[in-house]
């Protein structure tokens, strides 16, 4: 049964994350920008999107999900004003051929003209100590970039498989680090009420090095499931759930739902669970005073899909609440060039 591919990927992920050599301190990874969700639809679903199919943004999450029909092309672009006014943008193109689907994409993230405090003199030393660094710029930039290529194939009418490679670069001021990472994913359609199961493992690659000090990539493994809670001719409600295990944090659970009216109007909502406790090499979990990993919890979104000649244009929006931090708004535009 082709379902064994899902099981094989799940076992591979379990082995990878059970290895003692993979234990890392919480939050200590390089290329952290890869943890930021891409696509307004995916964000509105709270990243409970392992089983989303026919979606070019799956190039960034589960490459088994961007498989298209032969002759179909989809283009998407996402604008995200991330917390602290950080620019986070992404784009992807997926081409369906007789031999499978090819995808290319990018993720960019960064901030310009950050005020530099080079060799700053503490107030109590003003007039006594000398500032030695006076020739360099008073500001600096930081930037992250990932360039992706991927391949997906609808192996049978129920099973799709995919793989992707990404070239990574992080830079801050005049220093930079780079690496290469790989993603693998699969989705299996059960055939009952639109039910699907899926699995993915992301960001397999070598450590990134700044000043000869290596930091691991944000390795992530997740399994997910979805089914139609309501299914009628003109409207439906699909519920989704993912269980994700980051290399540097406890297991997380994402749950979301998507209401669709006549393949025209889309309403989405989600919640993230278990964002409330970490464990690192300095000791065990402190149940009485848990450390919050993130303020991110719930998300809401909406979208429309409109005909434009022979093509369809989808516009999606997602709101993510971040508590003490800035709320985040994402906008995506996609074109289906059938």
From TrEMBL:
SUPFAM superfamilies: Porins. NCBIfam families: PorV_fam. This is PorV/PorQ family protein.
